[in-house]
Design goal:
Distance between the termini: 102 Å
Strand content: under 5%
Helix content: over 70%
Number of domains: 1
Largest sheet: none
Order of helices and strands: HHH
Radius of gyration: 30 Å
Number of strands: 0
Length: 69
């Protein structure tokens, strides 16, 4: 009869497996998707800013060279 008592405890193990599955689910951490999106947007902004800075630096250097000659 002790074996039957152990078998009644099995649903607890199933619930643990369910919890593990849910932990892997995207729905469990919706902020992770938002965070990833914002990081991608930030990376794009950094690239654009670096390009703009380079363009301004190039123009400044070109104007500096024209003015001194």
């Amino acid at each position: 009869m002790s074996n039957e008592d152990k078998s009644t405890n099995e649903p607890t193990d199933d619930s643990l497996e369910y919890e593990k599955f849910q932990a892997k689910s995207v729905h469990e951490d919706p902020l992770a998707a938002v965070k990833e999106l914002r990081l991608q947007q930030l990376a794009v902004c950094r690239v654009k800013a670096a390009e703009e800075i380079q363009t301004m630096t190039d123009k400044f250097e070109a104007n500096k060279g024209d003015g001194s000659k």
